[in-house]
Every structure is written in structure tokens, then in C-alpha cells.
Amino acid sequence: MSHMWARIPLRLAMRNIYMEPVEPTFSLPEQLAGTAELSACFQCKKCSSGCPLTFAMDLLPDRVIRLALLGQEDTVLNCRTIWVCSSCETCTTRCPNNIDIAGVMDWLKEEAVRRGYGSPQPEVTRFHQTFLQTVQLTGGRLSEPLLLGLYQLKSPNIFTKLTSGALAEEMRLAWGLARRGRLVPRLPRRLKGAKEIKALMSDARREKS
């Protein structure tokens, strides 16, 4: 019961966002036109009804698509939804018009970072950045121990976790996973095309800047 009442303020906030009048602009829809055919969306809401993470979102996925079509850049790029999205692609699979909704969410994340919008979920942003850095450092492969280590080192709460014992507890958990073969404590072999992957990532950074 308490869980239901805890969600009421969020629902009221979402209702207020929906009721506010908006003035359509067209720069965002034009940019998204090369990513997905958003104009095919007829607001059936199958994406939102199937999403497993709507409880943590401030805008439902169908609202993000609608607001993007109306060019509401500040609302869309500032929302928590695009960062909460885990790219499980349930929405993409359920869409009757084959809109790549998960791909749109990824594009909106990148656009928000490119434009300098502050992330309402900084830990998620940090994970994405650490993931890409890990792939580049390991020559095109993912090293889970390196990913976890770099992610922890970049955490603004690293010293708090160190003094509280939380970091030691996580290291014991990692050691237990390694003993059972669920976490391999070594770097993977580099791919033959490691240089090409590094060049591609450098080109992508230059293009976004």
C-alpha cells in the first residue's frame, strides 16, 4: 500500500506534463528522421505497456516519442526516461510499425551529452562512458573486471564506500564470482582489428564534437 502512495506524486507530475500546452518545433524531428520513422507512431502505447522500467520513468516511452515529434527538445533531453532505458528492445519488438524506439532512446542519450545537458542519472552516464572506454582499452573486447574497476574508480562516492566497508564487500562478492567461474579476472585477447576499432571511436568522437 505504501508503495502505491509513493508513486502518486510521480503520476501527478506526469499528468501535469501531459496537460501543458506545447508549441511544436521541427529541428529535433528532422534530426531524428535519419534514425527512425517516428511519424509512423500512432500512439498505440504498446511500447509503454510492455516496458519493464516505467516505474522509474518520469515520461512514458510513448510520451517521449510524441514530444520528440513535437520538437520539445528541452523536455525530452532533460527527462530521466532516456537514461533509465536499458535498451532491452521490448518496445521495439512490440511496435506494430517497426519503429526502433530503443534506438531512438540511445540517440537521445547521445544528443543530450553532445548538447551539454546534465544527466538526471549520472551513474548511468558514467557506466556508458566507462563501457566504451573499456572496449577501447581492451582492443575491441569487453573485460568485465576492468569495466567494474574503472566504474568504481570514477564514482564520486569511492572514498565513502572505502571507509564504510561497502567497497570491501563488493570485492568479496567479485572474488566469489571469480571462484565460481562467473567472472574471469584477466584481460581478453585483443582483436586483430583493434587499430581499426580505435580509429572508428576516434572518428565518432570528432564527429560529435
Main traits of this protein?
about 210 residues, mainly alpha, Fumarate Reductase Iron-sulfur Protein, Chain B, domain 2, 2 domains, 13 helices, disordered N terminus
Describe the 3D structure.
Helix 9 (122-137) crosses helix 10 (144-153). Residues 1-8 have low confidence and may be disordered. 62% of the residues lie in helices and 0% in strands. The protein has helices spanning 2-19, 27-32, 46-50, 61-69, 73-78, 81-84, 90-94, 101-114, 122-137, 144-153, 158-164, 166-179, 194-208. It is built from 13 helices and no strands. It is globular. By secondary structure, it is mainly alpha-helical. The protein has 2 domains: 2-114, Fumarate Reductase Iron-sulfur Protein, Chain B, domain 2; 122-208, no CATH class.
Largest sheet: none
Which second-level CATH architecture of the largest domain applies? Orthogonal Bundle
Helix content: 55-70%
Average pLDDT confidence is 83
Give the topology, please:
Blueprint: H1 2-19, H2 27-32, H3 46-50, H4 61-69, H5 73-78, H6 81-84, H7 90-94, H8 101-114, H9 122-137, H10 144-153, H11 158-164, H12 166-179, H13 194-208
Helix pairs in contact: 9-10
Task: Summarize the structure in short.
By secondary structure, the chain is mainly alpha-helical.
